[in-house]
Design goal:
This is RHS repeat protein. Strand 8 and strand 9 form a beta hairpin. By secondary structure, this protein is an all-beta fold. It contains no helices and 22 strands.
Length: 324
């Protein structure tokens, strides 16, 4: 089980909707426009290279200096941001980020240690060049109770804080409080309530204030409801298709603002059209965004064009290399 701090969407090929044995993917994102049928490049928004292992996990990600505002100019070879990851039995255990900008090098290192049950028992965070000018360490302690488990997290680095959580038999938090070194409570105590029949999860932090999440039988989030002082604060609903892709969402808040979105996909499950509607008592606003793709023989897109209200605004190009 991976710790919640991991950015799961960057870890696996499938989460980036890449298919097959992808070895690397070089990504360039441009603001563009069309003039008399000619494509004009305006600004480069992003250039990065992702490397994957044969199991489909990200092992390195390098961001390059954006450089000149021209697609014809060569890449600026100065590495400004690099991510490297290590895995143990498919589990992400370290994440190291090295930046090098204008000759100044800074390293960000996150390390995680697990017990035999794959629970995090230690986190270490480092930022600096040699000895580090910012270091934090988290120690996790678990104590089994009749009702489930008690987890204590001790934060060290500048100040010491102790976070204590009670977990049920499924490993879900049911109560949490954070105390400073002198014993004073740092945050309001939070409590969770789970209804496995109604498939709801509710977080309470003070009287009349709660956040409730409702799921369907497939574990997909279908509603979030936030209350403040017993009154509606925010509400959002979600609908999915048979492939579990989001096809509609609706948002409303206490001020009477309402927004909705409709989402359409192609045969490769890539988003091809988005319709947004925003409403208040005095106005209704609508906009539409479409995406057009060019694919390779393996079903991965190489070019993605973004149109807002039928006008070309942005284009992403990808160069994909596969394992043999």
């Amino acid at each position: 089980m991976q710790h919640e701090i991991f950015e799961e969407k960057e870890l696996a090929l499938k989460e980036n909707n890449l298919r097959g044995a992808v070895k690397s993917c070089f990504h360039q994102d441009w603001l563009v426009r069309e003039k008399k049928g000619e494509l004009i490049y305006r600004d480069c928004l992003d250039r990065h290279l992702s490397l994957f292992n044969p199991q489909g996990y990200l092992v390195a990600k390098t961001y390059y200096s954006i450089g000149e505002k021209s697609v014809q100019k060569p890449l600026n070879e100065s590495i400004t941001f690099k991510v490297s990851c290590e895995y143990l039995d498919g589990t992400h255990i370290t994440r190291k980020i090295t930046t090098n900008k204008n000759g100044k090098k800074v390293i960000y290192l996150n390390e995680y240690e697990y017990d035999d049950e794959k629970r995090v028992i230690r986190e270490y965070h480092f930022m600096g060049e040699h000895d580090g000018y910012s270091q934090r360490e988290f120690e996790y302690r678990y104590e089994y109770l009749v009702t489930g488990c008690k987890r204590t997290i001790i934060r060290q680095g500048g100040t010491i804080e102790t976070e204590t959580s009670l977990l049920d038999h499924k490993g879900r938090e049911i109560a949490k409080s954070t105390l400073a070194e002198n014993g004073e409570q740092v945050w309001e105590k939070s409590e969770w309530d789970y209804d496995d029949v109604a498939l709801t999860e509710t977080l309470y932090w003070s009287e009349g204030n709660f956040l409730r999440k409702t799921y369907d039988e497939q574990g997909r989030l279908v509603e979030t409801l936030s209350m403040r002082e017993g009154k509606l604060y925010e509400r959002q609903c979600y609908e999915y298709n048979t492939e579990s892709l989001l096809v509609k969402d609706i948002y409303e808040n206490e001020d009477g603002f309402c927004a909705s979105g409709e989402y359409f996909y192609d045969e490769y499950q890539n988003l091809i059209r988005v319709k947004h509607t925003k409403q208040r008592a005095e106005f209704t606003e609508q906009d539409e965004r479409t995406m057009v793709y060019e694919y390779d023989k393996r079903g991965n897109w190489l070019t993605k064009k973004f149109y807002e209200n039928k006008k070309l605004q942005e284009m992403i190009k990808r160069e994909i290399e596969y394992f043999e």
